[in-house]
Amino acid sequence: MPRAWRAWRPGLMADPAGAPAQFDVIVVGAGIAGSALAVALSGEGLTLALVEAQPLPSDDLPTTMSVDDFDPRVSALTARSRRFLDDLGVWQAIDAYRSCAYRHMTVWDAQGTGQIEFDHREVDVPELGHIVENRAIVLPLARRLAAAPDITLFNPRKVEDCARQPDDTHVITLDDGTQLRSALVVAADGALSPIRTMLGFATREWDYGHRAIVATVQHECDHRYTAWQRFLPSGPLALLPLPVAGDSHFCSIVWSIEDALAEDILAQDDEAFCLALERASEGCLGAFSAASKRFAFPLRQRHAVDYVQPGVVLVADAAHTIHPLAGQGINLGLADVALLAQETLATTARGLPPGDLGSLQRYQRQRKSDNLVMMAAMDGFKRLFEADALPLRWLRNAGMRGVGAVAPVKQQLMRHAMGLGN
Questions:
Q1: Does 143 map to a domain?
Q2: Of 411 and 196, more confident
């Protein structure tokens, strides 16, 4: 370790009685992004703290398969995200539990003839991505955290205050009075990030006037490892394939629907909901025979004006939330985490503190530009497909057919969405 860094590190200095516990990095939030970051930084000579308001999971996950046995929240992981989780040593456990590779995607417009198909063979890869229950990602990460000697867990503990010090370190006060001090605080505490609010990060945001209804459903026909998305006037419907159990076929749905219609859909019994879903999906998976409890959450686009301040950085949903129509939220968050871990380790290897502003600004420049491009694209798709004017309907249908007919353009679009670069 470089001498300058060794001399600076507060974690190696004697602390007077009653002083805050010293760490090199404090991560607030032990969801997928925060846990992945802590694991990525572990074993590199840093002292790490992870603060989480909820207990970390410890129980084994259910192995039976019915609509009530799946986590209603799932992630569509790209190849880049899967590789990152593999590098962290958790993908094998995730895949051994259960995941579903999807090899094909069908997207079509409910108000026209526009349709586009994406297939893994077009870009010479085994699959387009994996559908994974969120809890199947969180649990192996939590086990890695618990086994890491350089990570101190504070959970369940809420952050009551985060105060910048004159030297640009921060002191965090927890709800039990414990105080922690660090050269770098990472806010991975979600879309309503308390750290972002406490430190006065400005955001630009707007409400879509939609809610996303999520559930697990059982259906008649084999999903053929295909992800389906239909654009309806009221919002997009995604059907994401889940593992097959014998003759039973399941998928996870994300149905983005106008607020005015969402209450009626949520109030339906299982039979009525399944019939409504069959109509909305145009029967692409046949009849739906069962549905889990439905959950709904409001859709709001939110983007922090800045991701960084001296000694503090926002990642994942704390920095940006995006419309779920392409399932890119978790992938953007993991890309944030992978780059921040890389920058932090490179910075400390040069003998600089992990909160070095130059390093944080490099992270911000790359991730902010990438995130803005994806957010603008998703917002544009959303607005284009909900437009009812005839010229726009013709344009989007012609556009889908046109992209599907030009192989190089389609392949480039697929590779970008999968995080495979050029």
A1: yes
A2: 196
